[in-house]
Amino acid sequence: MTSAIAVAQAFLDLAAKEGRSLTNMQLQKLVFFSHGIHLAAFGEALIHDPVKAWDFGPVIPPLYEKLQRFGRGNVARELAPETRDTLDPAGKEFQAIRAVWKAYGEKDGWSLSEISHLDGSPWDEIWNKRRMRYCEIPNDLIRGYYSDRVKHTGTSQVA
User: Fold this and answer.
1) What is the pTM of this model?
2) Which domain holds residue 87?
3) Which region holds residue 119: left if phi is over 0, alpha if psi is between -120 and 50, else beta?
């Protein structure tokens, strides 16, 4: 298990390799999706930070605080370089990160937010169905939703 900030740095590094940049909203959603895929594929959390249901979808508050200074603009590539050694590129954490990058890495923040708002999603369950605004989204709810979206083929892939 690692921090959401370390996972965000991994996404920033993947984007930089392709000459691209990412926004706060993109990073929030990509980290959340990776967490969900990791929970479903491996039965354990990717990040130790809580996920909360906010207006524009799932948000990880410690990551939001780190990204807040960038507003809606692009996030600096060197967000948290000290976290690079905390994730093993050959480890299972990166399997979920790579699967999410491959499936969603080219989508903009608003598109990712729409995906996180789909009917039946963990955010939808907390925000709309339970009407628990700004509350934590439990990992068991996230795991259950993403279990239907993971293929177990030796590596996790977004279904």
Assistant:
1) 0.92
2) 4-158
3) beta
